[in-house]
């Protein structure tokens, strides 16, 4: 059997028509997702319902035939699995019982993580046995800093003032939280691989908020440690890193963390990425999700720019961040046709 296209690219092969999948490809923009979501109860209930989560993961595969399916879950299942209270408020997002001191870290119990997250791994197993043969299964987790920011802020934040202040004021105490998350995230990702994930992606969605020195300490070093932990058990499983907002620090991230491939946010110029990143590893990205939302000429121009900029080397087509929930599903169909048909 011919190896899956996405896995070929992750080994460094440049293919004529790049594989395509999209971050948040399973979600609220799809009517079939909204139907399942209404049946499931809360968002976390859906994440922990293996049959429903597997069905939701498969929906965009059935509809669009993407080259990869990414597990339907959430980065905040890790703090939830550690014992932190996590809940989701409709139209507001995640809420957490904030942990803001080193002393409060004693409330976390890493020993129960894998048992608490067993339904997630059951979902992975269902998908591994039911996906089309040509479709790659991607597992994922949030990077230590990004997950820590939610744990400390108690939810989303515009400036991450509380989390960053703790990191600057008490680097040893904050470092303890980060070490807990490196360990928990490594075990979470390895469990996904054991149950059938063929690739894993590490989402550092808020990587771009630090100065150079702090980026080294709180982004590069924890991600490097996390990648090393995964490689101890699974040396050949590809790892995609996504340090969103990292700017020119993308170069240091690529050079130091040990990831297999790097996902580019929308702001990264494709010409710069081709010269400075793609010569070292496969790249993924980086269409603006708002171009997909708008469609029409904006979509065609955006696709053309990404394809022309990155098709000279190993490349996976994706967005620069997740699909916007208001995106018309037919725009996604158009995107897949443009990428696969070359009519751009």
Q: Can I get a quick summary?
A:
The chain has one domain (5-341): TIM Barrel. Helix content is 50%, strand content 12%.
Could you walk me through the main structural features you see in this protein, from its secondary elements to its overall organization?
There is one protein chain. The chain has one domain (5-341): TIM Barrel (Alpha-Beta Barrel). It has helices at residues 5-10, 31-40, 43-47, 50-64, 77-82, 113-116, 118-130, 144-153, 161-169, 171-194, 212-233, 250-256, 270-276, 289-294, 296-310, 329-341, and strands at 68-70, 86-89, 93-96, 136-142, 199-204, 239-243, 261-263, 283-287, 315-319. The mean pLDDT is 97. The chain is globular and about 55 Å long. The strands form two sheets. A seven-stranded parallel beta sheet has the order 1-4-5-6-7-8-9. The chain has a two-stranded antiparallel ribbon with strand order 2-3. Helices cover 50% and strands 12% of the residues. Strand 6 (239-243), helix 12 (250-256) and strand 7 (261-263) form a beta-alpha-beta unit. By secondary structure, it is an alpha/beta fold. Helix 4 (50-64) runs parallel beside helix 7 (118-130) and helix 10 (171-194) runs parallel beside helix 11 (212-233).
